[in-house]
Amino acid sequence: MTKRFGTRINLRQGHVDMTHGAGGRAMAQLIDQLFVQHFDNDLLRQGNDQALFAVDRGRLVISTDGHVVSPLFFPGGDIGSLAVHGTINDVAMSGAVPLYLSAGFILEEGYPLADLERIVISMAAASKAAGVPVVTGDTKVVEKGKGDGVFITTTGVGRVPDGLDISGANAKPGDAVLVNGHIGDHGVAIMSSRENLAFETEIVSDSAALHGLVATMVDAVPDIHCLRDPTRGGVASTLNEITQQSGVGVRLIEDQIPMRPDVEAACELLGLDPLYVANEGKLIAICPGGKADTLLAVMQAHPLGSHAAVIGHVVEDEHAFVTMETGFGGERIVDWLAGEQLPRIC
Amino acid sequence: MTKRFGTRINLRQGHVDMTHGAGGRAMAQLIDQLFVQHFDNDLLRQGNDQALFAVDRGRLVISTDGHVVSPLFFPGGDIGSLAVHGTINDVAMSGAVPLYLSAGFILEEGYPLADLERIVISMAAASKAAGVPVVTGDTKVVEKGKGDGVFITTTGVGRVPDGLDISGANAKPGDAVLVNGHIGDHGVAIMSSRENLAFETEIVSDSAALHGLVATMVDAVPDIHCLRDPTRGGVASTLNEITQQSGVGVRLIEDQIPMRPDVEAACELLGLDPLYVANEGKLIAICPGGKADTLLAVMQAHPLGSHAAVIGHVVEDEHAFVTMETGFGGERIVDWLAGEQLPRIC
Fold first, then answer.
1. Quick check: B55 contacting A, CB < 8 Å?
2. Is the terminal CB of chain A with fewer CB neighbours within 10 Å at N or C?
């Protein structure tokens, strides 16, 4: 596609207005000068309303994730990098190699173009670092007061290597439950950055793309049974989803769950249970018990798994409960998240 | 996935609240009892954060579209059916057979669950009628006043049959330009339904899935050069996109552009140029001039093309202008849409 317009949009001082979503000249300028400029790849430059790519025979996955995080910029990331990481991770949790992303923007009239550009630059950087290009997209604008700055819905497709069979339905009694590091960082980082909390901390979001870690894991242990990223609802809700899907129970050991002391302290202060706090660079892996040591070793050898740990195991349980052996030697049920701990965390 | 909860959400009298996006029990109930219930297909029932499907070697396309139409219900459709048709059409405009859809919902706190159910039922019906299932999704909730009821971002993947090469970059001088029927219906239907316009009409949106029509067209004329659906910005903006991409001009003949008399009258009343009004069940096709009669015949034989017409032809033009021979024998330039005619039309 050739550059369509000589005039430049004012990215320094301009604001999103309704014409940027109208399908005419202003929208084409925004696409050319902001999105194509930064996402910069051959498929996007095809300039069609869809991106075309070749595939070999095999299995693909598709996953989608809306992002409405508030605030849009937070310690350790922003909605742009989060939108890339979140969808890459959902794709990767099937064991797949993520291939392509699409991005749908819903912008609020009046939002500063300079801030939108920061978000797009961050998104493009995350996409390039991950090696997963944004190949097609869409932009809509809603009137001031009908949105909240920027919402981004990303969709990803990926290819599942032959021989893998990873699903939340595959956990079996005797399996080990692992996590790749400290829990709760993302949720606490977001909370700390909200204006109405005077809470100060050095905690940053763990937002990260996990497909590289997953690739080393499935390479070492191809018979991993389940992978899932404990985002909204945290480790507790993710494990409850899996126990329901698989018809098993999980027994956690509290002392083995990695957590930063400052996150633990922040959770106590805020009255949050860290098991329900969102993560954006963490995964839960469930594998045959006999493979746990191997899996743990490859996880710990990866930069995104250096604090990995075995945190529990799968048991028979017709009620599909998640329980936890507490630090005091007791046992409690770890139920689904009821209600809303942390609104708009992702 | 087994049914997870005995209790039922109150779809008759309940409202969206923040817990429906929190990742816990309320969200799982909404997914089970509303989305999985109506979209009902094996891939969605996998219950994972991604849907897995097999593909043969070949070419795929991916396309995404956010939907923020206001009002959410309008003559001839609603945001649910529109979100299905819009993305199916973007996929089909490559000549592809649409395979799967994903759906990302951004809901506003307080929105009636009964209305959300109507939208989901309509969306599921459109998806089933088209034979393109919604296989994965996501739900987020924003606080009252930070959204506008329901936004839906749909992404589609499709398979391009071998031998096709359809792109906005492929128009050539001598090609014919066709449209499959009356223009402007969708935009005028939306305008007529907005509260602040006392304008009454029987005009309904043309919202429709065009992949069946496209299949018959590429079957009859595999060397179609371009296909594009003239949504936001209308026929005028779509043709300007194509002339820019292809480095050619287009010459339209006003008298040959199909339009309903009541749409023409409504546009005059509202001060709208119908060439810039959005369509949601229309396509522009560009094919070698010698194939125009064949293509027109198969289009007219299809229910969604009965009013199809040849509306112009492609010419050499280094400025990539779209011009129109008017009914009075004059000629005018049909430029890009400047500004915003019809906000939130899709």
1. yes
2. N
Cβ contact A341–B22 (<8 Å):
yes
Using a CB-CB cut-off of 8 Å, the residues of chain A touching B140 are: 66-68, 151, 344
* Residue B195 confidence (pLDDT): 54
Q: Which of A1-10, B92-101, B140-149, B311-320 has the lowest mean pLDDT?
A: A1-10
Which pLDDT band holds residue A1 (cuts at 50, 70, 90)?
very low
Burial class, B308, CB count within 10 angstroms (exposed 0-12 / middle 13-18 / buried 19+): buried
Domain boundary assignment for chain A: 18-160, 176-333
Mean pLDDT of A160-171: 97
State the pLDDT at residue B6.
67
Which residues of B fall within a CB distance of 8 Å from A337? 22-25
* Tens of pLDDT, residues B23-39: 888 999 999 999 999 99
The superfamily in CATH containing domain B176-333 is: PurM-like C-terminal domain (3.90.650.10)
For residues B338 and A23, give the distance between their C-alpha atoms in angstroms, rounded to a whole number: 9
- Taking CA atoms, what residue in A is nearest to B24? A337
pLDDT tens, A173-205?
999 999 999 999 999 999 888 855 655 668 899
pTM for the structure as a whole: 0.96
Q: Tens of pLDDT along B1-31?
A: 445 666 889 999 999 999 999 988 899 999 9
Question: What value of ipTM does the predicted structure carry?
Answer: 0.96
And the tokens for A327?
């630090």
Residue A3 has pLDDT above 80, yes or no: no
B18-160 matches B176-333 in fold: no
The superfamily (CATH) of domain B18-160 is: PurM-like, N-terminal domain (3.30.1330.10)
E strands in chain B: 51-55, 58-67, 73-74, 77-78, 97-108, 134-142, 150-160, 176-179, 226-228, 249-253, 284-287, 309-315, 322-325, 331-333
| Chain B partners within 8 Å of A157 (Cβ) | 60, 62, 157
**Does an H or E element contain A62, and which?**
strand A58-67
Q: Given a cut of 80, is residue B226 above it in pLDDT? A: yes
pLDDT of A2 over the 50 cut: no
Nearest chain A residue to B148 by CA: give it.
A146
What does the DSSP 8-state code read for residue A15?
A: B
Cis peptide before A161 (omega within 30 of 0): no
* pLDDT given for residue A340 in this prediction: 72
Q: Which residues contact A329 (CB under 8 A, 6 or more apart)?
A: none
**Of residues B286, B267, B254, B303, the one with CA closest to residue B184:** B267
DSSP B273-338: -GGGS--SS--EEEE-GGGHHHHHHHHHTSGGGTT-EEEEEEE--TT--EEEE-TTS-EEE-PPP-
Question: Looking only at Cα atoms, what is the longest distance across chain A?
Answer: 71
DSSP assignment of B125-138 equals HHHHHHT--EEEEE
User: Across-strand partners of B22?
Assistant: none
> How many of the other CB atoms lie within 10 Å of CB of A147?
27
Which residues on B lie below 8 Å from A61 (Cβ)? 50-53
